[in-house]
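User: Please predict the structure of the protein below. I'd like the answer in structure-token form so I can feed it into my own downstream comparison script.

Assistant: Understood. Taking the following sequence of 94 residues as input:
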Amino acid sequence: MGTVPGSNALVNGERTSTPPLNGRDPAQCLLTAGEVAELLGVPRSWVYEQSRLGRIPTVTLGRYRRYRFEAIAAWIERIEAGASTGRVAAGPRP
């Protein structure tokens, strides 16, 4: 997966020290779908789709969707843990 930008974030069992997005510390704020897409290296539309399907941790603020960095990092770790046991899933399926 590589490194995820963030202030001393835990990714793949290692601490990263790469700069935060847009000069912000993602651990201290809610991220947009575009920022999550950048972190994960996927299209923004994929992030929105996973949000609608309930497969990615989302904070819903009215019609807006935002994402906590810590929740995304934990979600990635759960996926990686599943990969080591032969089970890989992005989240609950409808």
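That's the full token string. Residues 63 and 70 are 22 Å apart (CA to CA).
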